[in-house]
Amino acid sequence: MDGLKPRIADAMHRQSQPTVTVLSTLLAVQDELGFIPKEAVEEVAAFTGSTINDVWAVASFYPNFRFEPPCLHQVEVCWGASCHLVGAMPVIEAALQASGLETEGDTPDGRLTLRYNTCLGACSQAPVMAIDHHLIGRATPESAKSRIADLLAEQNG
Amino acid sequence: MASFEEIAAESQQRWEELTAGGQPWIRIGTALCGKAAGCDDVIEAIEAALQQNGVAAQVSQVGCLGLCFAEPLVDVQLPGGPRVFYGSVTPETAAEIVANHVAGGAPLAHLALGYLAAGGSDGTVNSALDGIPDLNQHPMRVVENRVVLRNAGTIDPEDIHQYIANDGYHALNQALTEMSPEEVLEQVNTSGLRGRGGAAFSTGTKWRFLAGSNAPQKYILCNCEEGDPGAFNDKAILESDPQTLVEGIILAGYATGTSHAYIFIRHGHDGPIDRARAAIVQAQEMGFLGENILDSGFSFHLEVALTGDSYVAGEESAMMEAIEGKRAMPRFRPPFPAQVGLFGKPSNINNVKTLAYVPQIISRGGEWFAGIGHDQSTGTVILCLTGDLKYTGMIEVPLGINLKDVLYEAAGGVPDGKALKLVQTGGPLGGVLGAGNIDILLDFEILRSAGAILGSGGIIAANEDNCVVDLTRSLIAFCQYESCGKCFPCRMGMSHLLEVLERICRLEGVPEDLDLMRKVGQDMQAGSLCGHGQLGFNPVASALRYFGEEFDTHILDRRCPTEVCSVPRFSPVASRR
Question: Other C-beta atoms within 10 Å of A101: how many?
Fold first, then answer.
């Protein structure tokens, strides 16, 4: 994990906006690494003049922060009301089934993280899912299944 | 630094070159709706087809025109001609459009959704194309009165010159050169503008609170933490015409004697974030932000602040906590933000839409704005139409329009021959209205007395196949997940409500459950610091008001009339535990 330190420092210092806070610094680190490693909590505390406790308090509050290295692919499925009414639940069930997961989380092979999202913002195209932050509208159980199967089957991806 | 007149003249010249110069202009919708519909593949296909056909064209990525149902939406304007819109474009039809229309000069009537007349540089209006309807006659557009959305889908959001050429920054120039801060504030007061984030509080009054403070450091905070499922108009403004918001924020700063502002957005919504940041940089380069703006002596600074995933971060005091880098949890009030706000300084919080109205109010006068709308609800409202509707998308209509007309005319009614069952308005803390109660004017007071709220403008329609208990459970599941946990009546109340609703959905509810939910709802309302807990019972209350019988059927007859609850239903929140 020693190799992460320069990247953490770089991400913290690269913030260009005038207002730098614990939250903005954590977001910058997660953007760089895809997660918040333990040593980043210490670095962020030192960088922002806060305590480790303060940093953990913020990092554990917002569910977008994760503390383990991310999987290769990020799949998000929306369950907001607009999506719910036009078939989000069957899409989520299909996505879970294709990933071999019982609920949101990581596949054991580290290929895919599935997350429920409360609103991906493209409600007019419901049901919506996203693969690696790329939005996909009018999702169906079939399309969700085949896209996830493609991700899992990818060679050397 | 160039004078405003010089900047405006250059922008005008560039605009004429774009619309009537030598090259065709191709515009593609790239807001979140366009992205989800696959616009990236269409852009790639257009670029390839241009190369293949050996034609040069200006290709621009614009925001959302509002006709989201037809995304990916592409419009082609030949020099000096009208704009021709193609809906639901695929990479294949994109190639066909480029070959025939862009390269060949012949619009494809069988693929076109409609045309919009464009004024030629000589003042003539070019229109009327064989077999292609006027897009302004489309049901979604015919009801519109575009104030905030006047440029949405038309200008390139990343080119400040296109905004200036369409009257942009004229209001700021006018305010800084001809008006005192008090006169700007007075126009906003006269307009009757009320907050479009949900609370509908008088904007002029709110600004006066801040203007009255002599503190050397004050803040304007623009709230774009739009976490409500079914609402995307704040994000759409940032994606479609961010400069109109930036200009509105600067005007708010001038009127209230404030020098710093933040636009607050959720991390991860990259389209709106990138366009807001690009807009700020361009406004700085033009001298509309920074020190001594347009030589007026007024200085103003604007930056983007990001939050992590949190719905409550959209609540004004929780938002200030998040900008300070802390957990997004609401504060006790008093003191109110106008006295003790961000970093302890006097602050004013407005929604994106509210601030985006301001440039037009200054240009056209408060009286003009007050003349639109209904009673105490002046101006327009931007509605996001989603769910079981033929035309889903975003429209800007005068307040006071009948909800029934919005649903059956503008949105084209419910598809597949189904009947409308209910609409859910105002986000997850709003309410539902039954299909029999939608003959109602969209007005802040009228909707509130009907048990629904206009909120930030989300209108979600559900057809007869949907179960109201199941929908209510989903809404409460959202509210439970998003409760920040600070006030126990909200934290525990939401969990309790969800538990009861899940029981009713499993057809295991008992008659006492309805009164139990009402009691929990009362406690939440009385014992929560912010709207999340105070309004959190709304979805249940309005569902019971309009669909009490359906709850009774679940509980007393152990039967779901729509059969939605007859099979075990997957619940993301339940599976999380």
Answer: 18
Q: Is A48 touching B (CB cutoff 8 A)?
A: yes
The H or E element containing residue A37 is none
Query: Which chain A residues are within 8 Å of B410, Cβ to Cβ?
Result: none
Fold that domain B377-460 belongs to in CATH: Ubiquitin-like (UB roll) (3.10.20)
pLDDT along chain A (157 residues), means of 10: 87 96 98 96 97 97 95 96 95 96 94 94 97 97 97 74
Q: Does B462 touch chain A (CB under 8 A)?
A: yes
Pairing of strands B118-119, B380-387: unpaired
Instruction: Mark yes or no for CB contact B308/A64 under 8 Å.
Output: yes
Residue-range domain boundaries for chain B = 4-151, 168-369, 377-460, 468-566
Q: Does domain A73-153 have CATH number 3.75.10.10?
A: no
Q: CA nearest B577 in A: which residue?
A: A103
Chain B residues inside the 8 Å CB shell of A27: 267, 306, 308
- Residue B301 in contact with partner chain A when CB distance is under 8 A: yes
Tell me which residue in B36, B270, B484 faces A128 most closely, judged by beta carbons. Answer: B36
Pairwise CB contact (< 8 Å): B323 & A137: no
The correct answer on CATH 3.40.50.11540 for the domain covering B168-369 is: yes
Decide if the complex's ipTM is over 0.90: yes
Architecture of domain B4-151: 3-Layer(aba) Sandwich (3.40)
State the best of A20, A82, A131 to mutate against chain B, taking most chain B CBs within 10 Å. Answer: A82
Residue keyed to tokens 């260009």: A16
Closest to A124 (Cβ–Cβ): which among B68, B388, B575?
B68
Q: What is each CA distance from B294 to B3, B177, B291, B297, in whole angstroms? A: 7, 9, 9, 8
Provide the whole-model pTM. Answer: 0.96
| The amino acid at A89 | M
For residue B364, give both structure tokens.
Answer: 């056209």
Give residue-wise pLDDT tens across range B114-162. 999 875 444 445 556 778 999 999 999 999 999 999 999 999 999 999 9
